[in-house]
Design a protein that fits this description.
With 593 residues, the chain is α/β, with parallel strands linked by helices. The chain is built from 24 helices and 16 strands. GO terms for molecular function: kinase activity; metal ion binding; phosphoenolpyruvate-protein phosphotransferase activity.
């Protein structure tokens, strides 16, 4: 029933971040989880052992709860999807984190609840303070586990969305992965939150569970009440309060059209990514977490073009061990064999500080100590990762990729360390792929212009266009004052892409692209026409890109690229690309428009 308060209210359209596509409507169920406020008290020296015992018991209880949630999710969706809680278990198992809490209890003589909030807050602040959205979202994992430990310490009952019985749209300040995992998909039609981003675990969970969701709505909890009628468009990122009858009719028709288009795209899952005139393009996926393998297969991607290894290093006080890394990389390689799995080595530093590192005071972190520069200076972190990747290579088609390389000096240094790791493993009798392919991300203008110099030392190039565009145009794409200048179709960018492709192919080097450009259906014909061999995209975008590829003629793509290299305006380039895409695959644009 629609609330009486809502009657007579005008329609209100809020724009957020669509993280899981789909159109749903329903009545609001407003969730306001109570934040646990820990008590603070001083301890007598004799009370310290008992306080530490309380902490360890709460940790044990927390681990049991997380394992139970993971097991239930595994049964419902599969082990890969449940592995998202590995990150939470890392926090609960992290010895450095645990020992710091115990040490502070002893030194400060304060109760465990207050010390836990202090220590976990420090780790969360480091993560949330970085500018990289993906890394900053990991702070939410630390906070989620901390709240769970606090509830166990204070014997507080856990709120659960599984208690909801009537169909609804959940609206909350934020939802943790633990919250999302308990959702009954027959009851919760969709959800919307004040906080969140496209890289959060909650967003990944929404995609995996196929629940339409919009996050980052800022104050949506203050704009709605229980029972309000709302509509969610998870594809466009729209949250509509009190939708009009006309709007509901339009969206009813749109939802039906979307279901039809998505059904048609699903039929392409097993079909090759090959143009109408027979030109093959590899269509792979960018992933951060093992649970995304289900999405990869569901949406018809072929292998992993970019495995961001950073997630293994987050939510923990110390870097992961070589063994734990080898287990993760090996499991992904086994699951996808013989399809390739490209593992990018650790890409942190500068504005993306590991919890185990001291905060950097660099004046310009984007031009600072990051990625391969950080790794070469920290062999204690880089060497175990290289060894882990090598060990995983015996389980499948694994490839190594170095990020942010600017010159052959860095590339040669990284390869020397790789060879040393190979020598060590041979001496230890450990099997690995002796001919494991090695590549570099081309994401700095100097690397693009010197691609031919890199060619003798690598097996493939991968164009990281997000940073390449920012560095070439000197534009911060998240700065509202200049973001309008961020133009993927700028002639300077197109010339760099063309140069890298020509330099690569001249030396029999495979060229892929893994930036956001690769996942734009409008630009797919242009990239293929420029000679890109592989498009690596977010799994959920793969069906749309594959549809465009299969309806495209390679000859038309080549002609388009030649024309676009003559245009002076990026707007003209995009308009021409859009015209061709609409001509061959207009239904794909219907999903985006």
């Amino acid at each position: 029933m629609t609330s009486s308060k809502q009657q007579g209210r005008r329609e209100t359209v809020l724009r957020g971040i669509g993280v899981a596509p789909g159109v749903v409507s329903g009545e609001v169920r407003l969730i306001r989880p109570e934040k646990v406020e820990p008590p603070e008290r001083n301890l007598a020296k004799s009370e310290i052992p008992k306080e530490i015992e309380r902490f360890e018991e709460a940790l044990s209880q927390t681990r049991e709860q997380l394992h139970r949630i993971q097991s239930e999710l595994s049964q419902a969706l599969g082990r890969e999807d449940a592995s998202i809680f590995d990150a939470h278990l890392m926090v609960a198992d992290d010895r450095s984190f645990i020992e710091e809490v115990i040490r502070e209890i002893k030194e400060q003589r304060r109760n465990v609840e207050s010390v836990l909030v202090q220590v976990s807050g420090k780790y969360a602040d480091v993560l949330s303070g970085v500018e990289d959205q993906y890394l900053s979202e990991r702070a939410a994992d630390v906070k989620d586990v901390t709240q769970r430990i606090l509830r166990n310490l204070m014997n507080l009952s856990e709120t659960s969305l599984r208690d909801l019985k009537e169909p609804c749209v959940v609206v909350a300040p934020d939802l943790s992965p633990s919250d999302t995992a308990t959702i009954d998909r027959e009851v919760v039609r969709g959800f919307a939150t004040n906080l969140g981003s496209s890289t959060s675990h909650t967003a990944i969970m929404a995609q995996t569970m196929e629940i339409p969701a919009v996050v980052g709505l800022h104050d949506v909890t203050r704009r709605v009440a229980h029972g309000d009628r709302v509509l969610i468009d998870g594809g466009k990122g729209l949250f509509i309060i009190n939708p009009t009858a006309k709007r509901m009719k339009e969206y009813g028709k749109r939802a039906e059209e979307q279901r039809h288009i998505l059904h048609e795209l699903e039929q392409l899952r097993e079909q090759p990514a090959k143009t109408a005139d027979g030109y093959a393009v590899r269509l792979s996926a960018n992933i951060e977490w093992a649970e995304e393998l289900r999405l990869l297969r569901k949406h018809g991607a072929s292998g992993v073009g970019l495995f961001r290894s950073e997630y293994l290093f987050l939510n923990r006080a110390e870097p992961p061990s070589e063994d734990s890394q080898a287990d993760v990389y090996g499991s992904v390689a086994r699951e996808l064999a013989p399809e390739p799995v490209v593992i990018r080595t650790l890409d942190v530093g500068g504005d993306r500080i590991l919890p185990s590192e001291q905060t950097s005071n660099e004046l310009n972190p984007f031009l600072g100590w990051r990625a391969i520069r950080f790794c070469l200076d920290r062999p204690d972190i880089f060497r175990p990762q290289l060894r882990a990747i090598l060990r995983a290579s015996r389980h499948g088609n694994v490839r190594i990729m170095y990020p942010m390389v600017c010159c052959t000096k860095e590339l040669k240094a990284a390869n020397r360390m790789l060879e040393k790791c190979k020598d060590e493993l041979r001496d230890e009798g450990v099997e690995f792929d002796e001919n494991i392919p090695v590549g570099v991300m081309i994401e700095i203008p100097s690397a693009a212009l010197c691609a031919e110099l890199f060619a003798p030392h690598v097996d493939f190039f991968s164009l990281g266009t997000n940073d390449l565009i920012q560095y070439t145009l000197a534009v911060d794409r998240v700065n509202d004052h200049v973001s309008h200048l961020y133009e993927p179709t700028h002639l300077a960018i197109l010339k760099l892409l063309q140069y890298v492709v020509e330099a690569g192919h001249k030396n029999d080097i495979w060229v892929s692209i893994c930036g956001e450009m690769a996942g734009d259906p409008v630009l797919a014909p242009l990239l293929i026409g420029l000679g890109i061999d592989e498009l690596s995209v977010t799994p959920i975008l793969a069906p749309m890109i594959k549809d465009v590829i299969r309806k495209l003629k390679y000859s038309d793509a080549r002609e388009l690229a030649q024309k676009c290299m003559q245009y002076r305006s990026p707007v003209t380039v995009r308009r021409r690309c859009r015209e061709l895409t609409r001509e061959i695959a207009g239904e794909v644009l219907e999903l985006l428009d």
